[in-house]
Amino acid sequence: MSKLDSDGTVETETLEPVPDIENQLEQIVDSMNRARQEIQRVIIGQDQVVDQSLITLLAGGHALMVGVPGLGKTLLVETLGRVLGLDEMRIQFTPDLMPADILGSEVLEEGDDGKRHFRFIKGPVFTQLLMGDEINRASPRTQSALLQAMQEGRVSIAGEYHRLPQPFHVLATQNPIEQEGTYPLPEAQLDRFLAQINIEYPDSASEREIILATTGVSRAQADRVLTSEKLRDAQKLVRHVPVGDSVVEAILTLVRSARPESSPLELVQRHVAWGPGPRASQALMLAVRARAVLDGRLAPSVDDVIALAKPVLQHRMALSFSARSEGVTLQDVVGGLTEQLR
């Protein structure tokens, strides 16, 4: 685990043993269960999406939410911020958005003594929960402004480092059907997202409940369950959750099998252009720990690896031309990868 020193350099932080870890984990389980219930009062019919969002935040990562308009992506982010006690900001990405609109900029001011000096005005990235709405509508230059923030928790302006609030999470949304006027996210930025969360249409019963609950005189409001400090403590504690050798081997087998250069699977060799790097293994290790805690277990299992394979891997892989011509999807490839773990 790393932290920023006062001079802006990155130092390695050693995780010390936690006394009475079982009791502390039980408290986290109780808090996260209450958080889940509060969110589900507002976000109806998207239980899996809610769980994957909480797993991502508990693991200390960022999420890319992909879904058509009107499925509650913005409402979900607002509700997460309220329930988890996080300061939140929203950026609407557009083609004319500039990096300074996200990070902030320096302005020249004149003091009472007549001397001029620069003053840094912070941008919306200086928050704990940043929603990037339709992130693929911004130019690559603007998209890349988030790279350092997402990876290091700091930004560099005019050669000076500025530390972001902690915890810091980016929840970005992307519309999969409107591609005109969009810029695909570069691979380096996609890799910074711990998970890609696909938001599908609700089933009939859930949609009925949605229209009845949201078109009346009043709407359900979620209550705050955690504070940012408690969430930060929970994220640190998740890293202490023990992981068995079988789970570690499952993660390694899954990720390495997804690379066409080293995969024993013909499906991957034929249809994958490039596969996930070591950051995918790191993401899976943190995510399976978080999922176990969210489910009230003190250790993850191989089933956690299988359940999280799709959200962690799908945005870190690219299909070859032969796959597209034959109608093979990334879901097919990830499904084939997880079959070897069953």
Automatic annotation (TrEMBL):
<protein>
    <submittedName>
        <fullName>MoxR-like ATPase</fullName>
    </submittedName>
</protein>
<keyword id="KW-0067">ATP-binding</keyword>
<keyword id="KW-0547">Nucleotide-binding</keyword>
<feature type="domain" description="AAA+ ATPase">
    <location>
        <begin position="59"/>
        <end position="203"/>
    </location>
</feature>
<dbReference type="GO" id="GO:0005524">
    <property type="term" value="F:ATP binding"/>
</dbReference>
<dbReference type="Pfam" id="PF17863">
    <property type="entry name" value="AAA_lid_2"/>
</dbReference>
<dbReference type="GO" id="GO:0016887">
    <property type="term" value="F:ATP hydrolysis activity"/>
</dbReference>
<dbReference type="InterPro" id="IPR041628">
    <property type="entry name" value="ChlI/MoxR_AAA_lid"/>
</dbReference>
<dbReference type="InterPro" id="IPR003593">
    <property type="entry name" value="AAA+_ATPase"/>
</dbReference>
<dbReference type="InterPro" id="IPR050764">
    <property type="entry name" value="CbbQ/NirQ/NorQ/GpvN"/>
</dbReference>
<dbReference type="InterPro" id="IPR027417">
    <property type="entry name" value="P-loop_NTPase"/>
</dbReference>
<dbReference type="InterPro" id="IPR011703">
    <property type="entry name" value="ATPase_AAA-3"/>
</dbReference>
<comment type="similarity">
    <text>Belongs to the MoxR family.</text>
</comment>
<dbReference type="Pfam" id="PF07726">
    <property type="entry name" value="AAA_3"/>
</dbReference>
